[in-house]
Amino acid sequence: MPDHSGGASLIRQARAALARIEAAGQMRGLRQTTRVMASAAPLVTRDGRTLLSFSCNDYLGLATHPAVLAAATEAIARYGAGARASRFVTGEHPLLGALEARLAHAKGMAAATLFGTGYLANLGVITGLMGPGDTVLLDGLAHSCLFAGARASGARFRRFRHNDLEDLADGLRAARARGGAGHVLVATETVFSMDGDRAPLAAMRALCDAHDAWLLADDAHGLGVVAGAVTVPLAMGTLSKALASQGGYVCAAEPVVRLLRNRAASQIYSTALPPASAAAALAALEIALAEPERGARALANARLFADAVGLEPPQSQIVPVMLGDARAAMAAAERLAEEGFLAVAIRPPTVPEGTARLRLAFTAAHAEADVRRLANCVRAL
Ligand SMILES: *Cc1c(COP(=O)(O)O)cnc(C)c1O
């Protein structure tokens, strides 16, 4: 067996890199976790234990809602299991246009376009609109896929300090001072995925308008829970969290959406969303709009928890319990699992060094008594 093959050095490289990840306490592993379908509460089984999950993004409790399941099942029966091709070939079916129209309407925008996931949406929007000579300014805590899009676009990119309007203003002035015909895009999250705080969108929108920069707001964690009062030129989001399905979208003006359909490679060269995912998201969106009390319940649960453990009132349904050290966060998650809770530890590099945490996600499906029980356990950590 030749040991000088490319394959052998690849395996050596993998072993060496894994050893470094292990030494840093950052090894990721997959743990089989399945939803207990019979329960309304978000119960899951993992490693033979039944746990109440505070780590799922099904904020409105719609992933097991009978109307959502029925819509997905009916779509499979009518249109088949997969989409068969890109939308531009033979993958277009009526549910996709219907979902886009509904999303655009819900966000108060003219048009929308769908992607395979939220990750692909950010990748497609940024690479589709920006290129060499342009500038992308990103919030320092923005999601990995916004950075991936900025890097892949070939534009110059720079991060501004998290939610810091002064630093953003400096970045905008510097981008404009460099002159040229380059465009400027500013990307942030409406509700930050790991911290649960919110971007000062109205002020950011005003700053961006003043510098003719395009604001992209990633609403992955806002839709259906934290009402967005500010419209932005690029309103991106996912179908995979409150909408309990799979897929990504961006809402924008009609010509912008038409341009993206022609330029966003992650949409053009990728198979369309399966009909079941579109149908499930459409059904979930209708419920989210008709029953705003679901989002309110998720927020109330987060407030109840924060109050019980003595944290600041949360700005969203996401509440981080900061532990700092990655191993301390892992130990805390294990303690909570012994108490019957799934609260996954989030470590670097997902979050900055020294800010390992339990990231708790409160949902409409959690009962008050369970939130109080969790708070007691967290207090005892
Ligand atoms: C989850 C998430 C995404 C990616 O969405 P997917 O549909 O899961 O690919 C993008 N941005 C933010 C802020 C997210 O939290």
Mass-distribution shape: globular
Tally of individual helices = 14
Strand content: 15-25%
Tell me the structural class: alpha/beta
What's the count of strands?
14
List all distinct small molecules, including ions and cofactors, that are bound in this structure. Answer: pyridoxal-5'-phosphate
H/E topology pattern: HEEEHHHEHEHEHEHEEEHHHHEHEEEH
Which regions contain 5 or more consecutive residues with pLDDT less than 50? none
Biggest sheet strand order reads 4-10-9-8-7-5-6
The span between the termini is 53 Å
The value of Rg in angstroms is: 22 Å
**Mean pLDDT across residues:** 95
Question: How would a textbook summarize the main sheet?
Answer: 7 strands, mixed
* Helix content range: 40-55%
Overview of this protein structure:
This protein is of the alpha/beta class and 381 residues long. Helices cover 44% and strands 17% of the residues. The longest helix has 18 residues. Strands 4-10-9-8-7-5-6 form a 7-stranded mixed beta sheet, sandwiched between helices. The protein starts with 5 loop residues before the first helix and ends with a helix. Helix 4 runs parallel beside helix 11 and helix 7 packs parallel to helix 8. Pyridoxal-5'-phosphate binds next to helix 5.
Characteristic terms for this protein:
seven-stranded mixed beta sheet, 14 strands, binds pyridoxal-5'-phosphate, 381 residues, alpha/beta
Write the layout of secondary structure elements.
Layout: H1 6-23, E1 33-35, E2 43-46, E3 49-53, H2 66-79, H3 87-91, H4 94-106, E4 111-115, H5 118-129, E5 135-139, H6 144-153, E6 156-160, H7 165-177, E7 184-189, H8 201-210, E8 214-218, E9 234-238, E10 248-252, H9 254-263, H10 265-268, H11 275-290, H12 293-309, E11 318-324, H13 326-338, E12 341-342, E13 345-346, E14 356-361, H14 368-379
Pyridoxal-5'-phosphate (PLP) is lined by residues 117-119, 143, 145, 189, 193, 218, 220-221, 238, 240, 248.
